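Please fill in the sequence for the structure shown.

STRUCTURE ENCODING:
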């Protein structure tokens, strides 16, 4: 059996490569997902934020057992067990409170509830009644970790794995056979004090990038880091078929596909010819109506009101026959962020 590392919302665990996402709901704070193989549901994962330092895991398990009973017809024989200790190693509980359980109906399941940090997580692995599945359960349980505080959060779906800086939170996703989308947003950093537009003329730009008005009030120049998205298209040969006669089919496809997204931006395109796969990087800034106006008040306003920055990095993976597109848009230049995400993706 082949295995792979799966990640979602900061939770990581090893799973067989034949298991794939089949159900998904909620968000990064509280949610649910299910993994199936070709025969049946295999794994359920639930997570929820908690403010309690010592939540009652038995009460959580009671509610979970109620949900399981609801999925079965009335009168179906079900048996439940708690305090099931499958993993004997003491270090497994280091840094977290763990409660094991199992149940049996038309199928059987083993599960764990654990609390770490500010999150309660439930993982349940399911199998057929006469299936020799203990080694699979043990490997999954021993591998599960909550890495919500790691610098990069791992997200996985249908062979795509990507690492995204933890300050970016998942807002939406599309998981289709020929198209995957992960869309993230970073929370804005609020200004320490507001400087009104009418007072900009009396403000001076300090060397550290903040603005100080005549009263000495300081306003932070750090603002919204913006949005980040990762897309995968396939097959690449189908995507590029209408542009095969262009000098650069990948760039021609991109300009046609993302015409609306790049409208209103001035940008430069660079190509990486040293890579096995063709890679393009587009770096741009929002254009403004007063560009080219040589009046100092206009130039001063332009310095104080940052332009929206746009970064695209895309490539055609010849081995997997897919196209990957990473996009960042916001008030800060996110070239390094886009590069980190690109480096985290093994496209074949």
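FILLED IN BY: designer on duty
SEQUENCE:
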């Amino acid at each position: 059996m082949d295995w792979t590392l799966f990640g979602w919302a900061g939770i990581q665990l090893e799973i067989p490569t034949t298991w794939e996402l089949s159900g998904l709901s909620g968000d990064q704070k509280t949610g649910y997902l299910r993994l199936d193989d070709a025969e049946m549901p295999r794994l359920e994962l639930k997570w929820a934020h908690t403010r309690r330092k010592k939540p009652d895991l038995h009460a959580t398990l009671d509610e979970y057992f109620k949900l399981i009973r609801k999925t079965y017809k009335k009168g179906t024989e079900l048996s439940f067990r708690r305090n099931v200790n499958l993993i004997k190693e003491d270090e497994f509980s280091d840094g977290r409170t763990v409660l094991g359980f199992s149940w049996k109906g038309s199928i059987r399941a083993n599960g764990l509830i654990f609390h770490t940090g500010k999150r309660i997580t439930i993982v349940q692995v399911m199998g057929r009644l006469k299936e020799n599945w203990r080694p699979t359960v043990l490997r999954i349980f021993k591998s599960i970790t909550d890495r919500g505080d790691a610098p990069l959060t791992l997200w996985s779906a249908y062979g795509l794995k990507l690492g995204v800086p933890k300050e970016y939170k998942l807002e939406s996703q599309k998981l289709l056979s020929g198209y995957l989308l992960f869309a993230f947003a970073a929370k804005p950093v609020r200004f320490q004090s507001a400087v009104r537009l009418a007072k900009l003329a009396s403000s001076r730009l300090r060397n550290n990038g903040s603005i100080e008005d005549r009263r000495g009030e300081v306003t932070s120049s750090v603002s919204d880091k913006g949005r980040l998205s990762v897309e995968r298209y396939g097959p690449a040969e189908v995507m590029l078929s209408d542009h095969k006669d262009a000098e650069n089919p990948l760039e021609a496809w991109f300009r046609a596909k993302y015409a609306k997204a790049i409208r209103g931006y001035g940008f430069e395109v660079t190509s990486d010819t040293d890579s096995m796969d063709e890679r393009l990087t587009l770096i741009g800034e929002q254009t403004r109506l007063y560009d080219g106006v040589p009046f100092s008040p206009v130039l001063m306003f332009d310095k104080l009101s940052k332009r929206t920055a746009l970064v695209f990095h895309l490539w055609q993976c010849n081995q997997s026959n897919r196209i990957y597109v990473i996009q960042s848009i916001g008030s800060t230049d996110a070239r390094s962020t886009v590069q980190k995400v690109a480096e985290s993706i093994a496209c074949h």
